[in-house]
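Quick question: what would this complex look like in 3D?
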Amino acid sequence: MRWLRRNLVVIFGLGTLAYMILPNVVVTVFSFNNPAGRFNYAWQEFSLDAWKDPCGVADLCGSLSLSLQIAVWATIGATVLGTAIAFALVRYRFRARGAVNSLIFLPMAMPEIVMAASLLALFLNMGIQLGFWTILIAHVMFCLSFVVAAVKARVLSMDPRLEEAARDLYAGPVQTFARVTLPIAAPGIAAGALLSFALSFDDFIITNFNSGNTVTFPMFVWGSAQRGTPVQINVIGTAMFVIAVLVVLVGQTVGNRRKNAQPK
Amino acid sequence: MTDKTAGGDVRLAGISKHYGSFTAVHPLDLTIPQGSFFALLGASGCGKTTTLRMIAGLEEPSTGTVSLGDSEVTHLPPYKRPVNTVFQSYALFPHLNIYENVAFGLRRRGIKSVKKQVDDMLELVELGQFAQRKPHQLSGGQQQRVAVARALINHPQVLLLDEPLGALDLKLRRQMQLELKRIQTEVGITFVHVTHDQEEAMTMADTVAVMNGGRVEQLGAPAELYENPKTTFVANFLGTSNLIEAEVLEAGGSDVTVSSAGATLRLPAARCSTTPKAGGKLLVGVRPEKMSLVHADEEDTVAAGRNKVRGTIAASSFIGVSTQYVIDSPVCPELEVYVQNIERDARLAPGAEVVLHWNPEHTFGLDAAQDIDAGIETVEEGA
């Protein structure tokens, strides 16, 4: 009993961790499967076939590359626009500032499916050809609010005296922004950008409505799940998981090293 | 080191600052001599920081001009002024290490070889071995020295210090006061120091301007301000003053004679900030440490010609070098007296009847039309 009481926190922690990691483990394990039929739902035998030929399924790598392109451009667009909006909202007092402040978070609050349908209606009414560009426009829109939220928090917590100090030390407006404001806001901007990339890359609902004949990676997975799930999907998923974990690890190592860089 | 200090005086001519209908600084004329250590002293909200920011260029004056030496800089942006600031809570750049923080001003002016200057400057503030650290890895006192180094390395004509020691604990603050004074003497640059701590201002500055409600109440050397306050605010804000309301019996000669609650007191006419007229009112002031205290039984021992008032000890507190008494007297309900602990008289305990006496030369006179308590609460707030 006493042992249980003392280790309760650890047990809960491990339990939660297992809950989060288990799905990823399943994805990874099944990427080494050699399924009997078209569906990769039952363990058969160990095989490296899918890893050796990740593009072996028709259209898979095409959709993957499209998704990556859209994610990159949506991230750039949303980050640039969102950072500018965040600075404007924090630094300037203008008419309708309050309204913009709440409107910007509307995409976060709105049910995605509703937004998807409305966007489709908008694009159709304007006579815009559905495809790469409509997907990109939609993604920039819903990523924007996340960037604004992340950057705004960072800019709000920034001491305005730092910029005054820069101006006092012979930095003109451009230099002050480039040398002080931007570097200090950078973690917020980076957080917004990473979030945008992740959201854009695996968005399905809005993309599905507004893509026309274009097929992104999430749509490809959905489509193939109707007819059978190729192991290559698990391979791509596992690879993405590994890359994400590596990025986080590298980031933390660099951060720690910088923090501990104290010459004795 | 002092190659660019031949800049001349800082001159403020009629500068004022309004925010909407609120006037932070009333039109103000001030000349700060080159190479001096000048303190702007006042409670929070008195306009001292606004005045400093107008010199720095971070705030544009509503009226008036700011001149450095022969050139007018009123409308120059801060990055074009030969003036640098040590900010309250330092405002060190958190993303740059100490070396880059100090080099910032030089680099922005396009100076390529900064290493020697930065090393020398870090040596001056004794932080050479911390060059590669980030600001948050330094203690408050060290950060403060970095802030000074970052400003001084640019050889400004004027160094502005905005409550630079406010965030430090008392002991460190004392130490940094001496340190700043040493640096100022060494580099010979004009320092303008904003503070709410009267002791700090008096310890460090050659000249102190006491500000209150957006105006300069009085300006002068610390000893001059302390000995000869011209207003009740200055009398109460700088140290402690006993102010006694009195009626003028006789004026016109070199001495003024006044009476308060039956006690007749004298003071030099030269030490009155107003012209006393017989029959008029006057506030008579004397500092607590100028007074002596004897038990009422020994009234005879008091030399003739000294000002005398009677009273009862209301409270006493022993603080080592001295004992502070609060005396309830007919002339004033709470007279403060500080007595050096040379020979302690055991009879001087609360409740004892006593006689206070002091040299009439140590008495000053103030216009009775002012608020007698001006400057008292603000001191407590600032402490």
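Answer marked as accepted. The mean pLDDT of chain B is 89.
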